[in-house]
Design goal:
Length: 144
């Protein structure tokens, strides 16, 4: 998991969605969100939350999101699982944890599946390493 700004810059695939969450009082909130996928970072997806205080980006594995649409997956900061909304709609639950707090989001399954299908059209599962520039990563690590 990586939290930073600018997660949808130069993305090959983006999708604007609205996710739902409830606060500690049970009041439901909607958050405008942009899902992003880049072939230059083929193992990851970025969820950019659009807020009045600026964009907040969570980056996590595309495979985690893919597997989480079918069954509960995840260890650590991000957990993903299929869910059903109160109105009976198919949803995907995305649970994010950090030292600053814990948030459970619900996204439409059709939105998530549309985004994933578009990302698969760019980089097929199992071919991610063909797009990953190891030399660039080593250079970034050594110059940081």
């Amino acid at each position: 998991m990586n939290m930073s700004g600018g997660g949808h810059a130069l993305a090959d695939v983006t999708l604007d969605i609205t996710v739902e969450c409830a606060d500690e009082r049970g009041i439901r909130h909607e958050i405008d969100t942009v899902l992003g996928y880049r072939s230059s970072d083929p193992f990851a997806v970025a969820m950019t939350f659009i807020t009045a205080d600026g964009d907040l980006v969570w980056t996590f594995g595309r495979d985690l999101l893919m597997r989480g649409t079918e069954s509960p997956v995840g260890e650590g900061d991000v957990h993903v699982s299929p869910a059903i909304s109160l109105s009976g709609r198919a949803m995907v639950s995305i649970e994010l944890s950090s030292p600053d707090g814990h948030l459970v989001l619900l996204a439409s399954s059709s939105d998530i599946n549309d985004f994933l299908a578009r990302s698969v059209a760019v980089v097929a599962p199992g071919t991610e390493s063909d797009y990953f520039d190891v030399d660039m990563l080593i250079n970034q690590v050594l110059t940081a």
